[in-house]
Amino acid sequence: MPELPEVEIRRQYLETSSLNQPINYIEVEDKKLLTTEYSSLLDALTGRQFTSTYRVGKNLFVLTDKPGIIVHMHFGMTGDLEYYHSSLDRPRFARIVFEFANGFNLGFLCPRKFERIGLIDSIDAFLLRKKIGPDALAISLTELRDRICRKKALIKSILLDQSVVAGLGNWIVDEVLFQAFIHPEQRGDTLTDSQYSQLHDAIYLVLETAIRFEATYRDFPNNFLIHVREWDDSPYDDVEAHKFCPRCGTRIERIVVGGRTTFFCPEDQVL
Ligand SMILES: [Zn+2]
User: Fold this and answer.
1) 269 in a domain, yes or no?
2) What's the CA-to-centroid distance between 221 and ligand 1, angstroms?
3) Among candidates 88, 116, 126, which has minimal Cα distance to 104?
4) Pick from 120, 69, 115, 78: nearest CA to 96
5) Which pLDDT score is estimated for 233?
6) Ligand 1 midpoint to CA 177 (Å)
7) 269 Cα–ligand 1 center, Å
8) What is the CATH number of the domain that holds 205?
9) How many whole angstroms separate alpha carbon 194 and alpha carbon 105?
């Protein structure tokens, strides 16, 4: 599933390929992928240009040269973007295609049809309505602490709550807590100042690493928990060596927290 790092990579891709070109037409193969009437989408965007992008969590917003006309993209389970010349075949699964005046197209790829595109008029109002908190890469240490410090829930569940901080999915939260030396079942209101600081640093470290390696997990640094997670389900005996903490060699434990599979090091992350 595209998590914050994947959506950030798509944002950068759209930003470098598709800005400042008049839109001639929008072809939509499946209207169910739209959260706005097709005719309204065409009316609003024909002749317009994309001018900038903005991401909050897994939500991508594309601003246009007309204030109040903003495209919202959600990549669902497998959504992606592809910019290509109109003389080439339409990419597989490009069910929504923005056709630009310069002969290039931006395809919104929706293999499983969980993806969505629609118009909004205000990003702030949208975030408020959907209860989406500040972006995980943009949140300050103070804001992070203020949003967690009175919550009695377990820290893992708090971090997964998109209204507290947006963009942290299951594996990312495990990796963040591992890098921050915090047990996933520690209560939010018991975190110390130094733990908040480690948590804030770890969120940045994990997300920046994932973006830098273009979310190709096997390329991540050796001291990341993700490698253990990747091997855990393997039935082969010879992967046993991969199931230990890359820092201290303790066997990584697998538990369920708030209904989600959770990996942690019982030696480094103590309650
Ligand atoms: Zn360890």
Assistant:
1) no
2) 15
3) 88
4) 115
5) 60
6) 12
7) 8
8) 1.10.8.50
9) 49
Give distance in angstroms: CA of 267 to centre of ligand 1.
5
| Cα 132 to ligand 1 centroid, rounded to whole Å | 33
**Which pLDDT does position 232 carry in this prediction?**
61
- What pLDDT is attached to residue 229? 76
Tell me phi and psi for residue 130, to 5 degrees. -90, 0
Can you tell me the distance from the alpha carbon of 1 to that of 28, in angstroms, rounded to the nearest whole number? 23
Domain CATH for 110: 3.20.190.10
80-85 vs 104-109, strand pairing mode: antiparallel
The domain tally of the chain equals 2
Residues 146, 120, single domain; the answer is no
Domain boundary (77, 100, 129) is at 129
Mean pLDDT by 10 residues, the chain (271 residues): 90 98 96 96 98 97 97 93 96 96 96 92 97 97 97 98 96 97 98 98 96 84 86 59 86 94 96 91
By residue range, what is the domain housing residue 185? 141-264
Has residue 8 been placed in a domain?
A: yes
Residues acting as catalytic residues:
2-3, 58, 260
Q: Is residue 58 a part of any domain in this protein?
A: yes
